[in-house]
Amino acid sequence: MSIIKDKLYEELIIKSEVIIDGVNVNPSIFKNLDLGGKYQEQIHSLFEMDHEQHVGVNFPCGFTSPSGLNYNFCWDTKSKYSIEYYNEKFYLTEAGKEIFPIEFYHRPTYYDFYTSDGTEMSHVGTYGKGGIVGIAYSNECSLKEKGLDCLFCNANATKDAYAEEENINWKNPRQIGETVASAFKHDKATHVNVTGGFIPERREVDYYIDVAEEIKENTGLDDFNGTAVIGAPIDLDVIIKYKEAGYRTLAVQIEIWDKNIFKTICPGKEKECGGYDHWVKTLEYAVKVFGYGRVRTGFVTGIEPKASTLEGVEYFASKGIISLTNAWNPNPGSKLEGHRTPEPSWHLDMAIKSYAILKKAGFTFEQYCDVSPSYDFLVHDIYRIEDGLLPISKNK
């Protein structure tokens, strides 16, 4: 392994700790940052990913290290990591000791614009580092009404806390089409991820078709590189409609591989969508429609044993399905708030093993990106390190 690779893997240890432990920051230091101007602010379109709610206090979205690795900002006042400001620069520190200087994400141009009905585009589609537009069409989940929401999810709690403060509402297809077109034009965005809480199946497919039509009309693109994130439909034939509408990839989030744990953690997915076996069947059917490497699922890693999750990753890889294995964050407002996710080294090992399975199955970095809702997961980083895609590798 080269010296550069060694250093990057050493930094991945830091990044995995920052992912799990967050950063302890005094919000007052951001008076030195043109947040919402030059630099991108957080917008709570679906989930609160900080470890503590902070209604009325703005934070940045994330930052980049000198090596080119990207870090999501996650506030936690108990973390040993912090961000400090001195000598007119921001630094990531550990227990008061400087690690390296950081650069916060720049605000995309389209965040300054409005849709034709006067809605802020930044509140329709959030921009992710690398050129992805994240659309959360709904900022709530209907499973709450039945007491069946997933135990790790805080979508409804996030809505209750932030929707009024940040003016986050349901997005209509025209708003989405105009926003995506602006992001593609002004910020070189190349991918759209459309997701949201549970809604009735018939309404979901019709809505997604309308969204695709508006995106195509406003961008002029038949292939807009869109990922439709859906619940497992009872009628599997509707999956064909998503493909015909123009989505390149499909996501069906199973979350848990162990069947019994799935029933406990995801009661709505078990009772409303045909049960665990139907979720697996849906993913296998989706590959027949969308093709090898163009279907994803996701696991909330850390709730079930590591071996169980990896068994799921391997099974799906053998079927042409890419699995995302991101660290479980016991989000504030979720039913598992106050629980603990496994230690950072556990999650880094999960990422390394997941990468090995995906690589062995022949999945490329481009395929992994095409099905991802963002491009800053640990597995993305491992692909970049191994393929020499980071700036530090290119400039050696």
Describe the protein's architecture and organization.
By secondary structure, the protein is α/β, with parallel strands linked by helices. It has two domains: 102 residues, no CATH class; 286 residues, Aldolase class I (TIM Barrel), CATH 3.20.20.70. Helices cover 38% and strands 15% of the residues. It contains 13 helices and twelve strands. The strands form two sheets. Strands 6-7-8-9-10-11-12 form a seven-stranded mixed sheet. A five-stranded antiparallel sheet has the order 2-1-5-4-3, with helices on one face. Helix 1 runs antiparallel to helix 12. The chain is globular and about 60 Å long. The mean pLDDT is 95.
Task: Summarize this structure briefly.
It contains 13 helices and twelve strands.
What is the domain tally?
2
* Termini separation: 14 Å
How would you describe the shape?
globular
CATH homologous superfamily classification of the largest domain: Aldolase class I
Mean pLDDT: 95
Summarize the helices and strands and which ones pair or pack.
Blueprint lengths: L2 H19 L40 E3 L5 E3 L8 E6 L2 E6 L2 E8 L20 E4 L3 E5 L18 H12 L6 H15 L3 E5 L5 H19 L6 E4 L8 H8 L3 E3 L7 H7 L1 H6 L3 H15 L4 E7 L4 H13 L3 E6 L16 H17 L4 H6 L7 H10 L3 H4 L2
Parallel strand pairs: 7-8, 8-9, 9-10, 10-11, 11-12
Antiparallel strand pairs: 1-2, 1-5, 3-4, 4-5, 6-7
